[in-house]
Amino acid sequence: MKRIILMTSVIMAAMFALGLTIGGLNADAADKVYRLKIQSAYPRGDLSMELLKEFAKSANKRSNGRIKITVFADPELVPAEQLFESCQQGTLDMIHAVAAMWGGIIPVGEVEFGLPYMWNSPGGKSVKENSEIVRKFFFDSGFVDLLRKEYAKQGLYWLDVHSYGELFTLSTKPMKTCDDIQGKKFRVEGAWMDYYNMLGARGTYISGMEAYMGLKLGTIDASQWDVSAITGLKWHEVAPYRIIGGGNDVVPGQILFNKKKWDSLPDDLKQALAGAAEDYFNALNDLYMEEMKIVDKLVKEGKVVYVPLDEACEKRHAEVAYELWDKVAERDPSVAEAVQMVKDWRKTLK
Fold first, then answer.
1. Res. 25: pLDDT tops 50
2. Going from the N-terminus, what domains does the chain have, and what CATH number goes with each?
3. pTM for the model
């Protein structure tokens, strides 16, 4: 009887201690703070990079302080061209960029970024309205599922899309006709190099940090970016002409996550990060709406000059763009699927 009483006491004590341990572990897990690093592909002064601090604040708030994100600009931790690999390896937890930067690794990224005329919306809608239309396509058409499947093959999780507003093409000289662009060097990304080569210009790539001096010194004749090319990076000081036509109304960007890190997060923190990414999407749209007002003022002052392509050249740009869509679709089955999704979606636009 004494032995039975002793054994019962030992078992009860062990169960009590185990309960305390499990409870302590659960409490520790619930209180654990996750410190994450995100680096943008863009330098200080770029609007989308600067607004990442709001993404970090939103994630912190939504997680009740359990997510703390430190934000870095290009090239503060690694050069922009090393972002993809650094996120794969876990050196960076997240990266902020455009998919065209790694279209050679993930071919569907070219469609995500948008081939010429792909993310144009009819009807003269606002920057914010156009961005919301494109985001709805991403999430309602199955496009996001395709993207996540392709990025997962590379050890990355596609978190969310955001918009940099309208595509801005700034040039050192006015370019109105297709003759004007012959042989000119356009700083662009991804398949847009093929686009300008097909038009008789020369597509090339240098980093955004080098573009101002490239335009000033004549290394390049034109460069593409978003509105912060003017309001943040001041490219109009050396390239005051904005070419109107041949581009897109929306330039989608992305936030990518190291997949192992993402998979290790509790579900509530995944939801917090997804919510913060959507908050960032909305905040960035609002910011770009305000930035466009600054550009309008600069146009009135003559510091930025709009140069619309003439009708013949606009038509030629469109013909080349649709030819490029089909060429890029041949690169990979995922690209062909994505291009078809876009074609079907565009038939529904009004």
1. no
2. 32-164+250-296 (3.40.190.170), 168-249+300-346 (3.40.190.170)
3. 0.86
